[in-house]
């Protein structure tokens, strides 16, 4: 009767809705999710640029991931063996484990407060250390506290998202993730003042299957080392002006294998290095950390 016919009609409309909706902005946390289509062979990308609201958020504003037949550009690191472990705080939690940019001041070596004594933490060149895991500033309990401490928790701003003609573009200011009013005052959380301006534009053409990342970074000192990071599972191959990342096929849906072809357009004198392999899976502060299993 009527109920069955209505359910069928509603289901058909829902299928059409999902088939058309390829891009979604979760503006509360500043997360863009986009894909080429809804088939098992689709390309799937994410991009994050928003504020910090809770203690378990990573220091990864501006980070992106890419999936096509397998993991191509990944969110690196391991959670274990526990929250606050050496691997978690020195690598996984920090910017170094994500596809962003690090700006390293060799003097940025203030240790974490620690419960019993100061705890040295790897200088990854990344974003300000926010969250209760660092033993500095617990997560805000409500909106009032967040607004009162906005200089701490404000980490990025995303302009209006362009979603037109198969092209998705997000223009973001992630300067506050690296620098606030306390940066340079000698505190562990705010870190040294290393970044004066950092704008990242992330674009995804889900018709041509192309991702473009354009960064404008002004360091506080020209001598600070700037690194543009891309994490992969399989070993990349370096070629003229770029790199190639494969992913092997597996016998399950959505894992047909793929390849990411990267081209470095700017700066013209960019140096491309591959770091990884056995013993160097988690490399930070010129040291290789052991996997925390």
Describe the structure.
The chain has 293 residues and is an alpha+beta fold. It is built from 5 helices and 17 strands. It has helices at residues 2-20, 86-92, 143-148, 150-153, 175-178, and strands at 23-26, 31-35, 43-48, 64-68, 71-73, 101-104, 157-158, 162-164, 167-173, 195-205, 210-219, 225-228, 237-239, 242-247, 258-263, 282-284, 287-289. The chain starts with a helix and ends with a strand. The model has no long low-confidence stretch (mean pLDDT 88).
Summarize the structure.
14% of the residues lie in helices and 29% in strands. It contains five helices and 17 strands. The strands form five sheets. It has a five-stranded antiparallel sheet with strand order 1-2-3-4-5, with no helix packed on it.
């Amino acid at each position: 009767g009527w109920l069955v016919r209505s359910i069928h009609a509603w289901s058909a409309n829902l299928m059409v809705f999902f088939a058309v909706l390829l891009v979604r902005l979760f503006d509360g946390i500043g997360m863009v999710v986009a894909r080429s289509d809804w088939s098992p062979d689709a390309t799937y990308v994410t991009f994050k640029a928003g504020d910090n609201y809770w203690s378990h958020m990573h220091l990864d504003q501006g980070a992106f991931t890419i999936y096509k037949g397998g993991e191509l550009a990944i969110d690196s690191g391991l959670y274990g063996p526990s929250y606050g472990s050496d691997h978690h705080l020195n690598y996984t939690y920090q910017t170094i484990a994500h596809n962003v940019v690090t700006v390293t001041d060799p003097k940025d070596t203030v240790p974490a407060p620690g419960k019993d004594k100061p705890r040295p933490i790897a200088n990854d060149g990344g974003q300000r250390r926010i969250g209760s895991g660092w033993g500095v500033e617990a997560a805000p309990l409500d909106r009032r506290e967040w607004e009162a401490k906005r200089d701490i928790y404000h980490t990025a701003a995303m302009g209006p998202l362009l979603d037109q003609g198969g092209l998705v573009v997000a223009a973001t200011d992630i300067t506050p993730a690296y620098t606030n009013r306390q940066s340079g005052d000698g505190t562990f959380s705010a870190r040294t003042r290393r970044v004066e301006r950092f704008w990242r534009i992330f674009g995804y053409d889900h018709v041509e299957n192309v991702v473009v990342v354009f960064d404008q970074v002004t360091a506080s000192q020209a001598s600070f080392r700037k690194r543009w990071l891309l994490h992969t599972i399989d070993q990349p191959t370096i070629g003229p002006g770029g790199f190639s990342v494969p992913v092997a096929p597996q016998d399950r849906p959505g894992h047909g294998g793929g390849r990411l072809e990267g081209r470095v357009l700017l700066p013209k004198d960019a140096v491309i290095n591959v770091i990884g392999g056995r013993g160097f899976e988690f490399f930070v502060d010129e040291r290789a950390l052991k996997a925390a299993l």
